Amino acid sequence: MKSEVIIDVQGLKKSFGKHEVLKGVDFKVEKGQVFALLGSNGAGKTTIVRILATLSKINEGTVKICGYDLVAEPVRVRSCISLTGQYAAVDEMLTGRENMYLVANLRHLKNFQERVDELIKLFDLSEAANKLVKKYSGGMRRKIDIAMSLLGNPQIIFLDEPTTGLDPQSRLSLWKTIEDLKKGGTTIFLTTQYLEEAERLADFVAVLDNGIIVSSGTPHELKAALKRLEGQNYEGEMPTLEDVFLSIVNKKGGAK
User: Fold this and answer.
1) Could you tell me which of 195, 119, 130, 124 has the C-alpha nearest to residue 157?
2) Domains in the chain, start-ordered, CATH in brackets?
3) CA separation for the pair 200, 219 (Å, rounded)
4) DSSP labels for the chain?
5) What's the confidence (pLDDT) of residue 129?
6) Predicted structure pTM score
7) What are the residue ranges in the chain where pLDDT is below 70?
8) pLDDT tens per residue, range 168-215
């Protein structure tokens, strides 16, 4: 059965003044995948997310999301995506439930109360839903932020370094949530600096370095390729995704 491509990026370029951030990025994301984009600080991961989420314009290239052209049909693109940025976008003076009602109204959703209840239960927020968000832990804020992103049942959710700053317990809880979203058919586009996060969650990995995708494949494919190249360094063991990442960016002249 042929996989359906839900994000198709070809020749993507982006500059800020004279600084060229993206120099011709190509990748495809299949429907229902967890796609992890890896890269050092400043590699351009967030720039790509902002472009795909229609928040930043491209200089060159073509992007299709859910079959829609990003430049010609941005409203249609927005109808099938949702974005959770690096920092939880919640109103601290509202309860978790009120935050969700606010987003539902902004999206012009009808009869959304039942969906809000479903998401509150899914994210294990029943006890906290009617408390002010300012009293939430970091993990709870991230959960309500992602729950808000799922209102309207988007086909794709962009998670830009979603576990940054979370304690280990909250991170594990969020990983479980991402796995549950994938089981439900949601496509996840994930950027992260935690290699163990990508190793656990990702179906497919792309490494961004110096403005281009320098390597891509399933975690197993990338690790197997490194072992073939540097087998003497690992003997009977399989390299980790961290080994792969460090090998790639060092060889390409990226972060040391």
Assistant:
1) 119
2) 5-80+154-251 (3.40.50.300), 91-153 (no CATH)
3) 9
4) -PPPEEEEEEEEEEEETTEEEEEEEEEEEETT-EEEEE--TTSSHHHHHHHHTTSS--SEEEEEETTEETTT-HHHHHTTEEEE-SS----TTSBHHHHHHHHHHHTT-SS-HHHHHHHHHHTT-TTTTTSBGGG--HHHHHHHHHHHHTTT--SEEEEESTTTT--HHHHHHHHHHHHHHHHTT-EEEEEES-HHHHHHH-SEEEEEETTEEEEEE-HHHHHHHHHHHSGGGTTTSPPPHHHHHHHHHHHTT---
5) 94
6) 0.85
7) 1-2, 86-88, 231-236, 251-256
8) 887 888 888 889 889 989 999 999 888 899 999 999 999 999 899 999
Structure tokens given for 60 = 């060159």
